[in-house]
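mind reviewing this stuff:

——
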Amino acid sequence: MSRSTLLSDAIGEYQLHMEARGLEPRTIKNNLQPVRRGLTEWGNIQCGSITGQHIDRLFRKAQWGASTRNLYLGSLRGFFTWCRREGHIAKDFDPTSGWSAMRTPRRDRMRLDVGEFPGLLDACRHPRDRFVCALGLYTFLRGGEIASLRVADLDLSRFELTIWRHKTKEADILPVCQELAEEAERWLAWYRLDTNRIPLDPNWFLVPAKRPNRTRQNPLTHRIEVVPDELAPLRPERQMCHPYRAVQRALAILGYETAGEGEHTLRRSGARALFDTLREQGYDGALMRVSSFLGHKDTRITERYIGLSLERTKRNEQFGGKPMFARPEVADVIMLEGKG
């Protein structure tokens, strides 16, 4: 390949390369985000002319936060590694050389207490949003996994939910707990009523898209405004977009800040609540059990995800207000005093 390849052409080829590898659309979009930002900032220059100064200018102007900066730095390095392999830039040159990831302080992400689960569900204005939140709380699924569910995937006679984990490309069958079964019965009854279809088509999406909101012209400003229709009819053959917005709508009604929150908020909340419940019941394999629900291969990931350090927890439970070392028996103390 030629080092005179234009950046826009390289971006197009890189996208096709990632699609051929089977990467998820969201992953592809994230990987291309900083490169496309660079295209806007630098212009459609030749890949071989990109230098470290271009990278400096991009990060200086964008002023991304530490986490976003680290994510985009990794994405740029992936792009330039591919460029070197394809001959778009010199094999011994990396424009990101000298850059390193910033340390980001760990912070606890929002998690709802199990006692807040009913309030969150009641805050949902549309029955579909309520079931989306119920799935997040009681199955710990990611948003994309929820959106891709079909009616046939839910078997209430066996209390099972068949899922596809997009991230790990694996199928799984999750148990449907009593709380979720009750929510499912409630949702399916409304689904049948809304579509006037009994039984529901098994190929329909379990939580589908809705009809678009209505619009009207404001008589004062003459601007076209969206009129939210909370009970808008469903579109069963169309997949729901942006499940996180259903979560944000409910959180906003409860008075929570919604920026950055969504399906993972429910995923963390449900997983942590289950862990705490299993620990209180004395179950030693609590972390492993929660990991299996989340689809994690490493329990250390689960430990960080649900916001705890298991060893620290065990340490504090073992020694908080208790003797650290075994004390000698009273008789032994008296014997020692007599010898003295």
